[in-house]
Amino acid sequence: MASRRLLSSLLRSTSRRSLSKSTLSNSHPKLSTSSTRRASPYGYLLNRAADYATSAAAASPSSQPPPAKSEGTKGKIIDEFTGKGSIGHVCQVIGAVVDVKFDEGLPPILTALEVQGHSIRLVLEVAQHLGESVVRTIAMDGTEGLVRGQPVLNTGSPITVPVGRATLGRIINVIGEAIDEKGDLKTEHYLPIHREAPAFVEQATEQQILVTGIKSKLDASIWNLCSLISSLQVVDLLAPYQRGGKIGLFGGAGVGKTVLIMELINNVAKAHGGFSVFAGVGERTREGNDLYREMIESGVIKLGDQQSESKCALVYGQMNEPPGARARVGLTGLTVAEHFRDAEGQDVLLFIDNIFRFTQGVLDGKYDDLPEQSFYMVGGIEEVIAKAEKISKESATA
């Protein structure tokens, strides 16, 4: 169209020049005779070309609509800040570490991503920004079968898990899925596992001992004449447990840390009527199964129609699972306990067994490469375990 307009302007200028020359030739008869002799036989064709160019320029539209953009696999971005709804693609898989590239809608740190078209629900958590729209993520499950170019959806929020009374008597994993083969959890309450800790001014300052009631029988023979049998509340006497505080159980393998925790759960559930949340971090499958069976036998967990009367919720990230699950299952159990404390005002006893395997999961998952995770890695959990005003939550870590 531009070339036609240019041709039209050139032809018009040529016609003007010829018109001025004809006027000049009329004033000078001699020139008129010579110009008539030099008249071009194709002048008529030039005039027709000028008329065609002018009519074509007038008939053509002034502007054309831009071509429609194909969205392809980018996805529809709902939130510009978090990039929710954007689609990325896997560009590298190194064990439990997965790099994902986004053309637009780059997710923030700690955002949960879900792999599309995978055999299982695979959740990735953003741990680092590598530059050039590439994020490094930690997988919460096995990465077997994951290939480069596979689409990944940005959820726009951290890992969100179900909370509330529906979790009582059930076993869930790090992403909130039920793994006890009793169907999905039916609840309307969900919370992200990454949240801010309560403010310092909200923490209560009163001190009160939590009576555990754990007793030990000591047998002593005196001159082989009689046997003295005494019952002592060993924990309450030698290591009193502060209400709303934190306590750690240290010992080698097989000395009875998990057994002591089981006694605490049983006694607190019966004596205080509160709820208990057990987070098994790197727990052996045998130990987790035995703990679940013992809770059923003792009545802490009830099955069938009486399941809502259970006093404990179990969150497992077992030893055979990837390091990402072991590094975040403690926060999942903490989120379940927080809901009972904040929303329902219940006294909650939180158990994390064990914190050493949590640290191993952090190191194995390449979290130690991050500056904010290379020092006291348990601080994120310990910050949130705080006693708010008029509400208490006890924590025991083994």
Features:
alpha/beta; Thrombin, subunit H; Rossmann fold
Explained architecture:
This protein has 398 residues and is an alpha/beta fold. It has four domains: 2-59; 87-158, Thrombin, subunit H, CATH 2.40.10.170; 161-208 and 243-397, 3-Layer(aba) Sandwich (Rossmann fold); 214-239, no CATH class. 31% of the residues lie in helices and 23% in strands. The protein is built from nine helices and 18 strands. The chain has helices at 2-27, 29-37, 43-59, 234-238, 257-271, 285-298, 323-342, 355-364, 379-384, and strands spanning 87-94, 97-102, 112-115, 123-131, 134-139, 151-154, 160-162, 171-172, 190-192, 209-210, 216-222, 226-232, 241-242, 246-248, 275-283, 312-318, 348-353, 393-397. A six-stranded antiparallel beta barrel has the order 1-2-5-4-3-6. A six-stranded parallel β-sheet has the order 8-16-15-17-18-14, with helices on both faces. Strands 7-9 form a two-stranded antiparallel ribbon. A hairpin with a 3-residue loop joins strand 11 and strand 12. Helix 1 packs across helix 3 (43-59) and helix 7 crosses helix 8 (355-364). The longest helix has 26 residues, at 2-27. The radius of gyration is 38 Å and the shape is elongated. The N and C termini lie far apart (80 Å).
Give a summary of the structure in a few sentences.
The chain has 398 residues and is α/β, with parallel strands linked by helices. The chain folds into four domains: 2-59; 87-158, Thrombin, subunit H (Beta Barrel); 161-208 and 243-397, Rossmann fold (3-Layer(aba) Sandwich), CATH 3.40.50.300; 214-239, no CATH class. It is built from nine helices and 18 strands.
